Amino acid sequence: MNTFVLAACALSVGAAITGAASSRSGAPDRWGNKSAPAAVMLNRFLNSAKPVLTSYQARRVLTASTMGGRMSASLEAWTYLDPDGTFRFDVIRQNGSGLIRERVLVAALEAEQRSRNHGETGQAELTPTNYDFQVDEDAREDGLVTIRLSPRRKTPMLLDGTVTVRQQDGDMVRIDGSLSKRPSWWTKHVDIVRRYERIAGVRVPIEMSSRADVRIAGDATFSMTYDYEMINGQAVDVEERSQ
Q: In 115-125, which positions are buried (b, 16+ CB within 10 angstroms) versus exposed (e)?
C-alpha cells in the first residue's frame, strides 16, 4: 500500500521546475552535455515553468487496484492549493474496497498534504540539485525532445527516467520513469507516467499513473486525473477544461 502513497506523493508535489540553468560557458559539463545546442535546450527546459502555479481548485479522480484487479477502489475529491501554499482536499465520492480507499487513495492525498504543508516539495523537484540531465539532441518528428533524468541520490521521491519537452520552448509534456529506490522489500518495481498541459497559460499536471510489481499481491495500479476549475485565481474556460 505504501508504494502507491509514495508514488502519488512524489509525482504530485515534486514534478515542478523551480531551478534555473546557468548561462555560464562551463555549465554544460555539469549536466553531462558537450554541445551548445544541448545546453540551450536544457536552459529552455529549466526555465520553462512560467508563470508559476501558485493556486488552483481541481476535481481529482483517483483509482487503484491490486490482486489482479480483485481488489479495487475509486475516489473523487475537490483539491485546493491556496496562494499561501496550503494544500487541502474534500472527498465527495468513493467506492470499492475500504482498505484501498483508506490505505491508498485517501492516504495519497494526505501524503501530498503533509509534503506541501511542511515545505518538503523541494525533495522531488526537477532541479540540478536533485538530478543530472542529459539531452537527446535528436528531436523527434513530432517536435519533442527527450531529456534523461539521473537522480543524484537514491530515494523513493526521485525518478530514474526521462522527461519529454517541446523543442521550441522546452515546455514539459510528459515524465516517464521508475522510483530510484524501492519503497520497501515488498515492492520490486514501480513505473510512473505523468502528463502535463498548459491550461489558462499555466503548465499543470493533468494525469498520473503508476504500476507496481508487489511481492505476493502481484501487479498493482494507481491513477489520478485532474479537472481544473480555477488556476492562479482565474476561472478556467469550459473549453479548456473539456480538452
A: bbeeeebbbbb
Q: What is the pLDDT of residues 124-146, one digit of tens each?
A: 788 899 999 999 876 677 889 99
Task: Give the position of cell 551548445.
Answer: 36
- Other C-beta atoms lying within 10 Å of the C-beta of residue 5: 22
Cβ contact 164:144 at 8 Å: yes
Supply the DSSP string of 138-170, one letter for each residue.
S--TTSEEEEEEEESS--TTSEEEEEEEETTT-
Question: What's the CA gap between 147 and 43, in Å, rounded?
Answer: 12
Q: What distance in Å separates the CA atoms of residue 198 and residue 234, rounded to the nearest whole number? A: 14
- Eight-state DSSP code of residue 237: P
Confidence of residue 35 (pLDDT cuts 50, 70, 90): low
In 3D space, the residue among 206, 167, 3 whose CA is nearest the CA of residue 100 turns out to be: 3
Q: What is the pTM of this model?
A: 0.83
pLDDT in tens, 201-230: 999 999 999 887 765 566 788 999 999 999
Dist. CA 190–CA 156, nearest whole Å: 10
Which residue stretches of 62-131 are H helix?
98-100, 107-117
Burial 15-51 (b: 16+ CB within 10 A, else e): bbbebebeeeeeebeebebeeeebbbbbbbbbeebee
Give the C-alpha distances (Å, rounded to integers) separating 160 from 28, 104, 136, 190, 198: 20, 23, 16, 11, 25
On whether the CB atoms of residues 229 and 236 are closer than 8 A, the answer is: yes
Are the CB atoms for 222 and 74 separated by under 8 Å?
no
Residues, the chain: 243
